[in-house]
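RETRY 2/3 - previous attempt timed out on the joint model. Re-submitting the same 485-residue input unchanged.
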Amino acid sequence: MLELDLEVARDGFTLEVALSLAKGPTALVGPNGAGKSTLLRAILGALPVRRGRIVLDEQTLLDTERGTSVPTEERRVAWVPQEYALFPHLTVVENVAFGVPGLAGRARADALIGQLGLDPLRSRLPDALSGGERQKVALARALATEPRVLLLDEPLAALDADTRETTRAFLAETLHRLAIPSLVVTHEMRDVVALGGPVVLLEAGRVRSTGALDLFRASPPSDFARSLVTRIVGGH
Amino acid sequence: MLVVLAVPLLALVLSTSPGDLLDGLRHPLALSALRLSLLTTTTSFALTVLLGTPLAWWMARHPGPAERVAATLVQLPIVVPPAVSGLALLLAFGRRGLLGPLLEGAGWTLPFTTAAVVLAELFVSAPFYIQSAAAAFRRLDEDLLWAARSLGASPMRRFFRVVLPLSRPGVVTGAALSWARALGEFGATLMFAGNLQGRTQTLPLAIYSAMETDLRPAKALSIVLVAVALAVLGVLGRGTVLEAVRARA
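RETRY 2/3 succeeded.
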């Protein structure tokens, strides 16, 4: 369980969010500029939080009142940004093993590479990979560290339509199999449906609604939500 | 223009026979200067990398008023005439300089010592490294650093596994330019460290001294310096030097 109560101020924009995320995937939707990526970065510890708390399975990662802040490198919060941020000078296997040095880590990285079907690509550099392959490498790299939370920022946005279809199913299945909370930012209703978990709607830095997918679909809580539900392919 | 650039170097090479070159290099003045230059530039280079890298990193990561002040301080030695640098060093670290009494109290006298040569070289050459390294660090994609942190990488691991490999061209260019500048340092050294054979007389100073007595060691040492310069250009590749100059402009 990941519990958040955060206030982030950035360039005249304020994000105020109180949320509880259960194990399994949660979709995070909202218009551009609603603060979705900001929220992910705040959970990661990459942004100063003005006020608030982050509690993960009873461990306090952040508590501004008590002056507690676990550094990013000790949070075990995995983050896959939009462009994946793969290390361009490292091969696939080096990227995946980055967070788990040592022999045991290498074995773990090898196992993940096998599971995700990346074996033939292990010696390639990220530049020589397709969008879908990069996404898998980024996911494998994140999973190799056995994170306690997974944050994915528009994981399918950089993919072409065909790759997106196959990767979507794979991603949803993987996230369901992991017994950790994951937060997935998306602009597409298809992704939300495939994930199947609760939906958090963020608008202008506030949580407009949070609840089950069926409820979100049956009675969209805002104009944006309505347009998202009725659109087959979400726009920007 | 090319004629102006090429003829002096050509004259230097053409006026020196292989016999002259060997004789010149065997000259006691040449040998001690070579040894001293190697020692001082190696030391100043090590100090440049050791002290300059954290500064470059801080400048790249903390833009703001303090960083702008630091950037100006780093740029100044590049544009200030070396003679001014020499005088400034003397006024700072000389016996009657700003920090002179303090150093003397600790039992150190800097001016006219080999340490003064190192300090002069550090002062004039470190800025080339710091600027180039800071520019390279600034170009890094911040998301890569956050990704590395999220994967549990310590600051050292992030620096050596991510930052340094990705900034290598800029860092290597800066290091080579800085070392070459230290090797060629003349004015500040002459004023702050003097021209004492075996102690403060580096290659450029030895060339200057030899001019008054025997031209052969002067020519031989000059050819050595030109060869070193060519080697530095070879290491960098012509494009990188131009890029480095552009990045600084």
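Residues 130 and 159 of chain A are 9 Å apart (CA to CA). Closing ticket.
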